[in-house]
Design brief:
The complex is a heterodimer of chains A (116) and B (111). With 116 residues, chain A is an all-beta fold. Chain A is 0% helix and 50% strand. In chain B, a hairpin with a 2-residue loop joins β6 and β7. Classes of the chains: A mainly beta (116), B mainly beta (111).
């Protein structure tokens, strides 16, 4: 079964809206979670690393004031796309490292964000 | 140079064909290697890990060449359901287990 839950799976909003995406670890504690973005026909690009109880680490070129990350508990990280515009439309996926797993990371189902 | 490079394809092959993908990585400190499969509009899912000695899982065979810094994936007897994008994933030693994804190779199996 799923070990990482992501919500919502699909969002359609008007330009200027802020959108919050949740990523939850199920049955395990995730001190670190990762947020990726994927544009059509492109690869997954790491946006930031979310650290429980401290500031997120953003990759070069990712605006931290635009993409707010909060990791307030060991099972929840949120990504808020502030004042979203059409160019922010993308597929956003979170992941976490599961202890004792043979996989490097387990992914949420992803959130497809469409800004009109 | 990208850390992990793959031929984006697409590879269009007939059912039953054998197809191989390569992936090169630039960081010699790379620790672990994986192949993920991603279907359109879905999250990536682990296909198989890649071991130095090579490993096989049914129709899929993965190989690692540390000296030349590349990994490969061989798919035999291709099925229509194999159509997807195959992502090469490299995990580096140390740190917080950050991984790097290749750009993916798209495979289309044709009836």
């Amino acid at each position: 079964g799923a070990v990482v839950s992501q919500h919502p799976s699909w969002v359609i909003c008007k330009s200027g809206t802020s959108v919050k995406i949740e990523c939850r670890s199920l049955d395990f504690q995730a001190t670190t979670m990762f947020w990726y973005r994927q544009f059509p026909k492109q690869s997954l690009m790491l946006m930031a690393t979310s650290n429980e109880g401290s500031k997120a680490t953003y990759e070069q070129g990712v605006e931290k004031d635009k993409f707010l990350i909060n990791h307030a508990s060991l099972t929840l990280s949120t990504l808020t796309v502030t004042s979203a515009h059409p160019e922010d439309s993308s597929f956003y996926i979170c992941s976490a490292t599961v202890p004792a797993s043979n996989q490097p990371q387990h992914f949420g189902d992803g959130t497809r964000l469409s800004i009109l | 140079r990208k850390e992990v490079e793959q031929d984006p394809g697409p590879f269009n092959v007939p059912e039953g064909a054998t197809v191989a993908f390569n992936c090169t990585y630039s960081n010699s400190a790379s620790q672990s290697f994986f192949w993920y499969r991603q279907d359109c509009r879905k999250e990536p899912k682990l296909l198989m890990s890649v071991y130095s000695s090579g490993n096989e899982d049914g129709r899929f065979t993965a190989q690692l060449n540390r000296a030349s810094q590349y990994i490969s994936l061989l798919i035999r007897d291709s099925k229509l359901s194999d159509s997807a994008t195959y992502l090469c994933v490299v995990k580096y030693s140390g740190g917080y287990q950050k991984v790097t994804f290749g750009t993916g190779t798209k495979l289309q199996v044709i009836p």
